[in-house]
Design goal:
With about 150 residues, this protein is of the alpha/beta class. It has a single domain, classed as Rossmann fold (3-Layer(aba) Sandwich). The chain is about 45% helix and about 25% strand. The chain has 5 helices and 7 strands. The strands form 2 sheets. It has a 5-stranded parallel sheet with strand order 5-2-1-6-7, with helices on both faces. A two-stranded antiparallel ribbon has the order 3-4. α1 links the parallel β1 and β2. α3 packs parallel to α5. Residues about 120-125 have low confidence and may be disordered. Its main location: cytoplasm. It is found in: Cytoplasm. This is Universal stress protein. Belongs to the universal stress protein A family. It comes from Candidatus Kryptonium thompsonii.
Length: about 150
């Protein structure tokens, strides 16, 4: 087993991804590893009409990226006194960006939250976590939603 030096946490600011971050912090403490928070903003596509197909609206994407960067920086700033942490935002398809980033940065572990969708929800929304598991070249820890109290 390789030493864990870099831990990637895909974060969408949901309670599920923040819960996964709590697990990742435990690993970072144990292995003195770097935490890397990655938020992926998916491109916004609108159907203009049947002749033009889909139209991309970059101004909305720019605003979403800026808001995501602000949120990521807020989390990083809250953690930086105790952890070696950095955060970034990318534009693209979530699972693709997560996998490509993990490869390019030689990430040792991905810790990702699961929304726990089943049945029809799973068919409609798919699972980023499931796609990351199938295509990742490094170990992936799936953190299931917290049990309801």
């Amino acid at each position: 087993m390789n030493e864990i030096k870099k831990i990637l946490i895909p974060i969408d600011f949901s309670e599920h991804s923040l819960f996964a971050l709590e697990y990742a912090k435990l690993f970072a403490e144990k292995f003195n590893a770097e935490l890397i928070l990655l938020n992926v903003v998916e491109p916004i596509m609108f159907v203009a009409d049947l002749t033009m197909g889909q139209v991309n609206i970059p101004s909305i994407e720019g605003e979403l990226i800026q808001k995501s960067e602000d949120k990521v920086n807020e989390i990083v700033n809250a953690l930086k006194d105790k952890y070696n942490v950095r955060g970034l935002v990318r534009l693209g398809k979530s699972y693709t960006e997560i996998i490509e980033f993990a490869k390019s940065e030689n990430v040792d572990l991905i810790v990702i939250g699961s929304h726990g969708h089943t049945g029809v929800e799973h068919l409609l929304f798919g699972s980023t976590a499931e796609k990351v598991i199938r295509k990742s070249t490094c170990p992936v820890l799936i953190v299931r939603p917290q049990p309801q109290k």
